Amino acid sequence: MSISFNPVSLSFIIAYYNGLTDRAYFAAYEDDTWVIRQIPAQFDAGRHIKLQVNSIGQPFFCYQEFSQGGRRDLKLTYYSLGKWYFIPLSTTGNTGYYNNIQFDQYGYPIVYTLDKENSRIRQYAWTGMQWTVQDCATDVAAQPMGLTTDFDGERVLFFFNEDTIHQSKPTEDTGNGGTGGGDDDIGTGSSGCFIATAAFGSYNAGEVRKLTSLRDGVVAASYQGSSLVNLYYSVSPCMADAIRSREAVRSLVSRILCTD
Description:
- A four-stranded antiparallel β-sheet has the order 1-2-3-4, with no helix packed on it.
- It has helices at residues 194-200, 206-217, 223-244, 247-257; strands at 2-6, 11-18, 23-30, 33-38, 45-53, 59-66, 72-80, 83-90, 97-103, 109-115, 120-126, 131-138, 146-149, 155-161, 164-168.
- Mean pLDDT is 77; it is low at 173-191.
- It has four helices and 15 strands.
- It is an alpha+beta fold.
């Protein structure tokens, strides 16, 4: 079970795994009553679930999912405006144990998990454009880990190596881990800029690249700008769905975005 405080509704959200149904659920206090929702899944999903709510009230869930072939995958899911979004972070082996989630200064999620198959703790960080992966610790025992922040606001991991507790300060510099860490194939679930990608048809379009560069280099550089980016991500998936399915709307939005 995992509990997180929603700063928008000023209430707690609870996530848990039900062993009778092999599914994960979350409970939120809405309109003076508790509302329980099941997190959609095809297979046994929800073990080692961790919940964190971001600054605009979106709940993010990280958990282990059993898949065909006996794999234990790592999945990140979030709930926004009545819709579910799913991101498979790792689909390569025996991972997804003792998960933790935090958000960086831009509100992007950072996930930590224990990869039992390789005895390591991995960090998955969303940059706004892609997921990056790096190993935070190796030769790690198959025991729970802890995540906290120090007085400087830096993340600190606590974990077991044999019978000794160690600590490590993971960074967001993923130069050594790259975008796949050598063996993880990450599905992004959606592009870095939902609306622009829907309008131009591809994240690789030059217009989309220019807009995401402007967002990351200028808009998100300030506190007010990063708050605006967080608000954008809370509403843009639904808008992008509507744009993508209507050619006339796509054409209009693309012309607006191309206006200097």
